[in-house]
């Protein structure tokens, strides 16, 4: 917990956990205010869980949820009322603390000067200068809306796609004015989580401070984007502030929709229910694998698209391998429940995978979509579709590894950048937005029909960098992405089936067949995954070294040219 004291009676914090509540009580807080709607992102403790913990420690609790970037006057009044009624000191929290400090600032505006308020919040790390007009208006002194600060390139998201693109841009044009908007303090190497769940990596190996991965010279804006105003070439931040751009790169990842499975959020991390899709949870997978003596182990895969489509079965293979090595496999009944109808989307890799399914004696259950879990009863329910009919089937488990359903993030879904399915709508070759020529998208959150992987991002980032610079120079995009994605299927500890393919399932191996035959389990591919790929991620991709990822510069395809001509970017450029 990172408590930032704004006044003796008031402090804010990024999201707190149930365990933090006791620490808050010990530090003398007497009330807690939640300013975050439930279910906003990856499992966050629900407000009623924090309420229960607060009441158990004798603290008062108030829920004043506020939608990111949309702090209304009504929210400010309700928050002000809560502060007036609750015993102090009060600790308020949201995702990063920005919304809570914004609410405090606006609730104090009638009594304190804007300078004093901005100094108080600035002193604990919240730069709310964009609020000045609203603060001044609240004291009766109305100022015109401050012009948005403008950068050459604004990048949404400091994940794999955002950092790699910034590095590739700076490699091509050192000194370019780039801002990355990213609310998290830490950056995660998510491809490592399969190996954490398999007992190979420590989870600490998969995390670095965000400050450490930001390329030198990039301005890190430590908050979230809440909406887009592409007609003004601006993004709106969590605190209502705006930043302008000459080119925008959108790479915010996707939403893990835990709430789509009834009862899952309540039991995740307990009762034998786990998921390698979370930093905090992957070690629990390994704990379950180590301690399971016998019984039923179920691994689930939701409907596509998901990030790293092989990850659900990788969890199964590595668990089964550990049980084989410890001699327990004969006592463990393994089932892979897949909402889809095939083990892997590219048929060339299926025979090698089927050999392992047979070796581990795992049952494959297709068209099985997990919809409900009761952790305490150790039961899971699946909607099973057969011959066009769907019926609900109950299964018991001793261990349940869940890959959650995945969708576009809410702030993308409701934005003008989204396609009908909720993804950032880009041209699949140039990665330029379908309607806004100064906007590009890459990574898990965009609409391209490739495998959503960091390997895809490694190839996409240089393409986006090339094309952003072209557009900044008043030229058409000219670099082309071929849909490359890769999935190192960890079929056993020490061997990998290295799937590498592009659009339409075309195989795109990086190595000659005599070195790594992707269709067969390979020791060298395991070494690549365990030793080389983390290094390529942190020290290659994030430093602008484009090993095996040089962008293809091609004459533009008719589709790409059409999309460029259809957008009004040339006019926007003239205007700016
Ligand atoms: P992310 O890396 O998820 O980054 C998105 C960033 O955007 C985050 O930092 C987030 O905080 C930020 N953000 C979100 N909302 C906002 C907002 N409103 N404003 C500003 N910023 C925001 N890939 C492989 O290549 N090989 C593998 O073996 C592999 N295995 C995987 C195994 C697992 C279990 C998982 C979970 C993933 C795996 N992946 C693998 C996939 C890979 O990690 C992702 O494809 C990759 O991280 C996508 O990069 P991204 O930038 O799109 O999203």
Characterization of the model:
By secondary structure, the protein is of the alpha/beta class. The protein is built from 18 helices and 28 strands. Residues 568-576 have low confidence and may be disordered. The structure holds flavin-adenine dinucleotide. Flavin-adenine dinucleotide (FAD) binds at residues 156-162, 181-184, 190-191, 193-194, 224-225, 251-253, 276-277, 307-308, 311, 409, 411, 443-445, 452-455, 457, 486, 488.
Outline the fold blueprint:
Elements: E1 4-7, E2 10-13, H1 18-26, E3 31-34, H2 47-56, E4 60-63, H3 73-85, E5 90-93, H4 98-108, H5 114-123, H6 132-138, E6 149-156, H7 160-172, E7 178-181, E8 186-188, H8 193-197, E9 207-209, H9 210-213, E10 219-221, E11 225-229, E12 234-237, E13 242-250, E14 255-256, H10 264-267, E15 273-274, H11 282-291, E16 295-301, H12 311-325, E17 332-338, H13 350-359, E18 363-366, E19 368-374, E20 379-386, E21 389-396, E22 399-401, E23 406-407, H14 410-413, E24 439-441, H15 454-472, E25 479-480, E26 485-492, E27 495-501, H16 523-540, E28 552-553, H17 558-566, H18 569-575
Parallel strand pairs: 2-5, 3-4, 3-5, 6-7, 6-13, 7-10, 13-24, 15-22, 16-17, 16-22, 17-18
Antiparallel strand pairs: 1-2, 8-9, 11-12, 12-13, 14-23, 19-20, 20-21, 25-28, 26-27
The structure holds flavin-adenine dinucleotide.
Residues 156-162, 181-184, 190-191, 193-194, 224-225, 251-253, 276-277, 307-308, 311, 409, 411, 443-445, 452-455, 457, 486, 488 line the site of flavin-adenine dinucleotide.
